[in-house]
Amino acid sequence: FAVDVLEPGDCCLQLYLVVIIIVLTFKSIKRIDKNEDLPSYFTEKSNESAVKYINRKFPNIDIRGGSQHLSSIQKQKSAVLEGLHSYYESFIDVMEFRDNVYELLNTIDACQCFFDIAVNFDLTKNYLDLIVTYASVFYMLSRIDDKKAIVGLYNCAYEFSNGNSDPSFPRLGQMFIEYDHPWKKLSEEFGPHTKSVTGALLSLRMLYPRRNLSADQWRSAQLLSLLASPAAMLSPTCCDTMACEYLSTEVMERWILIGFLLCHSSLNTNADSQNLWKTALRSGLYLTVIRDEVLNIHKLSEDFFDGLKGYSKRIPDIKECKDYVITNCGALRREKRNFLRNALKELTKVLEDEPALLGPKALYVFMALSFSRDEVLWLVRHAENIPKTKTPEDYADSQLAELLYHMEKLRTLLAQHRYVIQRYHLQYLSQYDALVLNDIIQGMYVCPEEESVLMSSFVSTLSTQCFCLLQAYTSTGKAPLALKDYPDLAKVMNMAQFHTRMMDSVNELLCETADLSILCFHARVFEKLFSQSSEDVSMQRYLTAFPVICSHFSQCLHPLCPEEVSTVSPARQFINMQCFQLCCATISTARNKKLKKSLPKKGDVPKEKPGTESLRKDRAIVTNLDKMHQALTELCASYSICADFTVFKHIIVPAEFLLSQLEIRLNKVIVQMANYNQSTHEIARPSDLLAGIQAYVTSLHSLSCYINIDVTRLVKNVLLQQTQPLDSYGSQTITTLYTNWFLEGLLRQASSALIVHCPTTQCFVNQNTENEQSFHAEEYADICGLRSLAELIGPYGLKFLNENLMWHIISQVGELKKLVSDNMDVLVQMRANFENPDAMSDLQKKLTGCENVLKRMTIIGVILSFRSMVQEALGEVNVSIYCLKDLISPEGDIKVTLSVYEMASAAGLPCEIDPALVSAIANMQTGEDEFKITCLLLVFIAVSLPTLCLDPNSFYSRAQGGHQNNIHCLATAVNHIAAAMFTVQRKNTRIQLQEFLKVASSILLQLGQNVERMEIKNRDSIYVILHMIVEQSPFLSQDMLETCFPYVLLRNAYREVHKTFIHTMG
């Protein structure tokens, strides 16, 4: 301010320190209020006595007299010093800051500095910011309830360690006592500075009312409109106070209201001060102190003036202003936001079409951003603390997204075309500003040497630093060259400074006028505003503005507080909510397509004929599908606002994030559509699920018409995940659900013959029983159902299904081996004497577990029959190559054969040897007797076949092509089990099956000799099983069967079982 007394840069240095201290103070408040990061001894019960003693005696704490209370502190003095050191140092920083501000304010008064926002803008702004920030620091300091305990504990520990008190403690304690009532103390401190503060505030009496106009006045003046005067569109925007035009009204209100609290004497003596103060009081209820800390300015002012003598007349003024705010301010602000929405939309469209206008009309852009920012922050500030009013809807705005969208558009335009702005203002500075300044300086009568040097430097360089120094030199009372005496010089210098900032610091100016980082601390209101905007279909195209605003959040942090760096969660949350709405719109569209219309009730008026719904009688009539389509279109359009943005060093690509969210939700939707109920074993039919997925996929593909995303890749990823047991997020898929259902629901009942395998129709059907089944097996396990299953879960999913089927088969094979081991001796004799009827009759009586063997083999057969049907369905769905498998022979290298069979089986091709079964059996081989056990198992099965005749359900049904108790599946079980087990043991399967055929034929031929026994009841049906085994086996032939079993018996057997079939003619 003065050459010999104060360096001009001191003010900026002080303000920089203020930012650091107020951030640290605010952090301390939050941490202490929430008990975050406080040392453990603050909450320990043993230290309660010490804390209470310190608070009672503060600041005169006698550690000797209070030793009984402070003994716990003495024991852990080192821990106390270490834990509270950072807090104590922060309070000392505040005290030193106060000392520096004292000195600075006294120096300013001594220099008789002149402040006028229209003349020396930077100096006046920094001065008022210093005053308000100083008051805010000590207001925040008074909010810390535990500050005395923190400082007292630290000083006691320090005195226990060093024998004397900390040197700073007495002054620190005195400062805490003085600022227990901060506003009273601050008003006393600023009494000597009233003249300077009031002069600076009164310089706003012309600017603030002009900036605080209503929406109707803005509209009448056609504010921010480039189209209002087309002839002047290319003319540069100039005024006497360039920087004042985009100065935040919120900042001015904070200056006025807090400034007149500190220097209140002029409110009773100066009408201009009183009018300015009342105008600011009518603008709102709350002032921002820092971040989300606000002042209820009317309550604070009323309480403050109520305790001052001679200010009783101000109390009614405050109440009248408060009533005005509650009654009118919400509606006025809403109208302002409506005006700004349209004004910014027009401005954006014009500048997008003609970006060269950013040069001459840059001031309009920053004015629009500043005005919009003020209205957004006013809404957020008051929505957090809604007053009691009859119109609470004034504090909600469902159309805020559009305003934020256009603000971001203007920021983007400034960033994209910054070279246009720089080139224009470079020419403006060199060809106009420098020349005008030179002419003004040449015409000045008095120009001291030092000021002349500064002015010459400013003209030659046009730098902001030179201008700030010149303001400091020419604003003191004894300056030879007083800036206030040369208003033309001040005007041109203000204009030149703005043009210089357009060259050097557009980004800084954007932060000053359009920074919304404070919304980071109003997360609840921010989310509420997002939800309100998302409910308005017309606003959904602007919703991406909310997550983009999160890119501002990094600007609210300070480098000296790196631990405050937040995560990317706010932006992710907004996009997540937005993606959820987009998914809902897509899903609802698909659901609308597939919903079945309800049947008309009796007595209802008959509906119109088909086709009439396509005729729209009135454009105003909007169907639900129209609404969903519009919502989908609007939401997709919102993703075009930007390709990517950065939040705390995290780059967010909205389109990719949308894909990831659609992937998550489509996975969940597909599983939900399956409707699996584990308790009741209910699940959707595979064909219904496939139709539903196709409807959803069709709807998703329509997204690519509105937004550039790869829907095909999305669908492939999701469907591929559904072929695995778990998706990429660890959740169950339809592969797991259908595997569990077919094993626990269908095959378990088929094992009990409640469901029958029907070879004729290639499906499973329900038995006619008294207890009605919860589902119809033919709706799930028919050709159509299994083809749909194969399309849904694919080869990978069927592989998982097969692995589970194999596990059940292996468990049955293990039990069969135990039965063979229990009857080992008898089976060995039967194998040697199967042609001796008498010996076989005696040995049959010694054999145990025949029914058990057949039951387990039937279960294996049912499972393998189901697997064969699934494999056949997979082969029909997939386009397979057959030639490779046809070139392989089982007699060749078994490893090569199994490898080819495994590949063929994965494609759904039938194989002579089941590779999955071979692999499963190979893993359970235990000893050298495996071959013997396998041979005896076949003998056991063969000699047990006659017992099937005793079961009344063993009759063959021509309609189904099988038996009522599923024993026809024995043919499949014998062939597959024998082929797999002998392949593992490297034996000739054909020879061993021929032995089985001989034993079975011999045993079954003996049934014909027992004419009077019950066994002959279903004898013909059992003969058919023998023929099925040969017919299905790739290793046996009819010639082999005829060598040991007469063909005439088979012919008679088929004739007998077909006699019971009833023919019906249509």
Structure description:
This protein has 1066 residues and is mainly α. 63% of the residues lie in helices and 3% in strands. It contains 45 helices and eight strands. Strand 3 (645-647) and strand 4 form a beta hairpin. The protein has a two-stranded antiparallel ribbon.
Secondary structure layout:
Elements: H1 10-33, H2 48-57, H3 67-75, H4 77-110, H5 121-142, H6 147-162, H7 169-178, H8 182-189, H9 194-202, H10 207-211, H11 215-220, H12 242-245, H13 249-262, H14 266-269, H15 271-281, E1 286-290, E2 293-296, H16 297-306, H17 314-353, H18 362-383, H19 400-416, H20 418-442, H21 449-461, H22 464-474, H23 487-504, H24 506-514, H25 523-535, H26 545-549, H27 569-594, H28 624-638, E3 645-647, E4 650-652, H29 654-674, H30 686-701, H31 711-722, H32 734-751, E5 755-758, E6 763-766, H33 783-822, H34 824-832, H35 837-846, H36 850-877, H37 883-886, H38 894-906, H39 915-922, H40 930-944, E7 956-957, E8 962-963, H41 969-984, H42 989-1005, H43 1019-1032, H44 1038-1044, H45 1047-1059
Antiparallel strand pairs: 1-2, 3-4, 5-6, 7-8
Helix pairs in contact: 1-4, 1-5, 2-6, 4-6, 5-13, 6-7, 9-13, 13-15, 16-17, 17-18, 17-19, 18-19, 18-24, 19-24, 20-21, 20-23, 21-22, 25-27, 27-28, 27-29, 27-30, 29-31, 30-33, 32-33, 33-36, 33-39, 33-40, 34-35, 34-40, 36-40, 36-41, 39-41, 40-42, 41-43, 42-43, 43-45
